Amino acid sequence: MHRISSNMNNMDTQANLRLQESRLNKANNQIGSQRRIQELRDDPLAAGHLVRYQSYLDRVNVFEKNAATLSDQFALREGYMNNSLEIMQRVRELAVTGANGIYTGDDLKNMASEVDELLKELVQNANAISSDGNSIFGGTNTKSVAFEVEFGTVEGSGTPLIENVRYNGNVGENKIEVDENKYMTVDNAGNRTFWAEQQSIFGGRDATGWQADGDSVISVDGVEIAVNAGDNVYALAAKINDSGAAVRASIDPVTNGLNLETTDARQLWLQDVSGTALNDLGIIKDASQKPPYNIGNSVRVSGGSMFDTVIAFRNALLKGDTESIGGRVLGALDNGISNLVTRISKSGSEYERAQLNMTRNSAMALSVTQQVSREGDLDFTKAVTDMKMLDYAYQATLSNAGKMYSSTLLNYMR
Question: Whole-prediction pTM value?
Fold first, then answer.
């Protein structure tokens, strides 16, 4: 049995007014934010789906942005590589012309002037800087000049000319995520792009008696290889060949030294990461010397860069040595052009893959956006209708309450 007091009607009216105000406020907030879910308790299941969809949409947008950035980088890099290819083709034309033996020494010196200018342009391309100020062909060492130029006196020239070009970058690679746990590898090492020949080193130290004193790690062409205590030179050569590095190892049948040769045109990059295995074999100097110019003094090296080839061609022109031009120089130029074409083809393939990833992620973003909209967006027409009905009910409640309590202070002033 409930006791009915004179204040009960007022309390019920006030409670219902507050409830209707709350519902009306929620409807206004939904319309203002255009979101159906204002709090997790509004629809826990949909809220859970919505959080996951929005998180995935953010990742897809990042993947698309990464692919677009890579596309721009590849396009810029390919432009410099194509220009370098045109330079090398012009140098080869001059080499074929200069090798036929019908030109005088003065004619060859005039050709050397053009070759020297082409060499400067080639170095300029190799030291290209991207729009964000990073070195394009420096590997992951993007804040320094990729190639350092050394000038010196060259026989046949009265002015200092480019005598040597040294690589100042590294062989590090960046991995950019373009899909869920899927990465594109970006290889910008200039000592691979601008290399003309396969590089070989021939160890001059007898390694048959060598044995690793302890566990160590060596780096061959950027690939780390574990050397275990007790390994001999034959085990080391087998590990290098099985490592996946673009290097072949063998034991010299004459000197019994360790020989290394790249499988394509690139500069060898050797380093003792921990321990002194390569240093003990005489392949590299101690750890104070950094690659790639840390090769041991007893080691013979063959295979040079495009710059070395063009420099050798220019010097041969200045000396009038047509025999060298038609022999080793022309062959090295052909190898350099072939390597550059291969690198351009690889860069173009990477550009196409980046474009495909960008297109796919763009379509995926639209699909996920639809899922987010389905779970979280507001049905605007229904929301406006509901709000008008709530507002109508609220106004009707106020009107009825006003009629219930129509007495005012003026009723007592008669």
Answer: 0.81
